[in-house]
User: Which sequence fits this backbone?
C-alpha cells in the first residue's frame, strides 16, 4: 500500500534544529543519513513524541500536527507503530503480554498471523529477558503490528545485531512489508538496509534534506 | 508481656497499618506528580509535603491541633458533621499519616524517576492513555521502590511520638501507642513494661526496615 506523508516542519533541540519540507510517497520510505542527522527526531515528531515549533505533519489528508490550525494529535491517537532502536519491550511482561498490549479487540487470527510471520509462536510465554537480540526485535515489531498501525516507524531496528542476526531480522522486515502492506518510515545509516527495504529515500544531514529519490539514485550519489 | 502491653502493641500496629494504607493513594499520586510533571508552585508543594521530616514532631502536632481542634479550620467543619478527631484513635492515624507521608513520597518519587520514559512513550504509541500507562507500565516498574517507601513510612508511623502525644494524648485503652507507652512507663518507673514495649517496637521496626532495604536493593 502506497502512502503520502507530509513532513513540513521546524523543530529545535537546543543548538540543533531539524528543518524539513518534504512530501514523500511510497510503500517504504527511508530516512537515510549519518548519526546526528536528525532522523530519529523526525520519527519522534511523526510519532507525536516531540512537538515541532511550527509546520505541518500529515498522512494523506489527515493532519497529525499543524501549528496554524493548532492541531496536535496525541501519540496514543496517531496509530503509529513505533519501533525504537533499543526495543524497549516492557520488562515486567512476557512476550504474549508485550505483543498484545495495544491489540484492542484484535481477533485471535490477527495474533496468529503476526506470530506466524515473525516466527514468535514458540517464544510466546517467554520472559523478555530470556530473548536474544533478534527475538527482542521481532517481538517489538509484532507488538507494533498488533496495535493496528496506519504506519510503521522503524528507528534503526537492526542496530546492535551481529551480521548473521542482522540479515535474519532484515528478512523478517521484508516479510512484514510484503505480508501486511503497512506503510513504513524507516531510519537507517546503512545503504544495504535501505536498498533491501525502501522504495523512496530521503537523505538527511545536519537536520536538513540533502536529496530525495529512489534508492539507486540517492545511494549511489551518497 | 501483660495483656495490657499486648493490647498497646496490637493497637499501634493496627493504627500504623491503617495510616500506611490511607497515605498510599495520596502519597503515590504526589510522588508521580513530583517525578513527572512541571507546574508553578511544584517546589513549594513538595517542600510543604516534606516539611514534617525536618521540623520537630511536636511542632507538627501543634499545627495539627490548631487545624483539627474544635476551633480549627477543619475541626469546626468536622465537628458540625459530628466527627471528633482530637484525642481519639483518629488523631493517632492523622499524626502517623502526616509524619509518614514524606518518607513514602520521597521513596516513591525516586522509584518513578527511575522508570525509563521510553516505556511510557512506547505505551502511548500503542494507544494507551495516561491512566493505563500508569497502572500497566509506570507503577508495576516502580512497585518495589513504592513498597519500600510504604514500609519505611509504616516504620516511622510505628515509632511516632511527638505529634501523636499532642493530638491524641496517651489515653490507656484508647490512644496509647507503643512510643507513648514507653514514655509513660519510664516516667512512672515501670521499667519492665517500658523494656517490653521497647523490644516489641524494635522487632517490628527491624522487620519492616529489613524488608524495605531488601526491596530497595533488589
Assistant:
Amino acid at each position: 500500500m502506497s502512502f503520502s506523508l507530509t513532513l513540513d516542519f521546524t523543530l529545535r533541540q537546543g543548538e540543533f534544529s531539524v528543518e524539513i519540507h518534504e512530501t514523500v510517497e511510497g510503500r517504504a520510505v527511508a530516512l537515510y543519513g549519518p548519526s546526528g542527522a536528525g532522523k530519529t527526531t523526525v520519527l519522534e515528531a511523526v510519532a507525536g513524541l516531540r512537538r515541532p515549533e511550527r509546520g505541518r505533519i500529515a498522512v494523506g489528508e489527515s493532519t497529525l500536527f499543524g501549528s496554524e490550525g493548532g492541531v496536535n494529535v496525541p501519540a496514543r491517537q496517531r496509530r503509529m507503530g513505533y519501533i525504537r532502536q533499543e526495543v524497549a519491550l516492557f520488562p515486567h511482561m512476557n512476550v504474549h503480554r508485550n505483543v498484545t498490549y495495544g491489540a484492542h479487540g484484535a481477533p485471535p487470527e490477527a495474533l496468529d498471523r503476526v506470530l506466524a510471520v515473525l516466527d514468535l509462536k514458540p517464544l510466546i510465554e517467554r520472559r523478555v529477558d530470556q530473548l536474544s537480540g533478534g527475538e527482542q526485535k521481532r517481538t517489538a515489531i509484532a507488538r507494533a503490528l498488533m496495535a493496528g498501525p496506519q504506519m510503521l516507524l522503524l528507528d534503526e531496528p537492526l542496530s546492535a545485531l551481529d551480521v548473521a542476526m542482522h540479515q535474519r531480522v532484515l528478512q523478517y522486515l521484508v516479510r512484514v512489508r510484503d505480508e501486511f502492506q503497512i506503510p513504513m518510515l524507516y531510519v537507517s545509516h546503512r545503504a544495504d538496509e535501505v536498498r533491501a527495504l525502501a522504495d523512496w529515500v530521503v537523505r538527511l544531514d545536519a537536520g536538513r534534506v540533502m536529496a530525495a529519490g529512489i534508492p539507486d539514485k540517492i545511494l549511489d550519489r551518497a | 508481656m501483660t495483656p495490657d502491653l499486648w493490647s498497646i502493641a496490637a493497637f499501634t500496629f493496627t493504627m500504623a497499618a491503617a495510616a500506611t494504607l490511607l497515605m498510599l493513594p495520596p502519597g503515590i499520586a504526589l510522588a508521580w506528580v513530583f517525578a513527572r510533571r512541571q507546574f508553578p508552585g511544584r517546589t513549594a508543594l513538595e517542600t510543604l509535603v516534606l516539611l514534617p521530616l525536618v521540623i520537630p514532631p511536636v511542632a507538627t502536632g501543634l499545627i495539627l491541633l490548631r487545624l483539627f481542634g474544635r476551633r480549627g479550620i477543619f475541626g469546626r467543619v468536622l465537628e458540625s458533621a459530628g466527627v471528633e478527631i482530637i484525642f481519639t484513635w483518629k488523631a493517632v492515624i492523622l499524626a502517623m499519616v502526616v509524619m509518614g507521608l514524606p518518607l513514602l513520597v520521597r521513596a516513591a518519587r525516586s522509584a518513578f524517576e527511575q522508570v525509563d520514559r521510553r516505556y511510557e512513550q512506547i505505551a502511548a504509541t500503542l494507544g494507551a492513555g495516561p491512566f493505563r500507562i500508569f497502572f500497566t507500565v509506570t507503577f508495576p516498574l516502580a512497585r518495589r521502590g513504592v513498597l519500600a517507601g510504604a514500609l519505611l513510612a509504616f516504620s516511622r508511623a510505628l515509632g511516632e511520638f511527638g505529634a501523636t502525644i499532642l493530638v491524641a494524648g496517651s489515653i490507656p485503652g484508647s490512644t496509647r501507642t507503643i512510643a507513648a507507652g514507653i514514655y509513660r512507663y519510664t516516667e512512672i518507673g515501670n521499667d519492665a513494661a517500658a523494656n517490653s514495649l521497647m523490644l516489641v517496637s524494635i522487632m517490628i521496626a527491624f522487620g519492616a526496615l529489613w524488608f524495605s532495604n531488601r526491596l530497595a536493593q533488589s
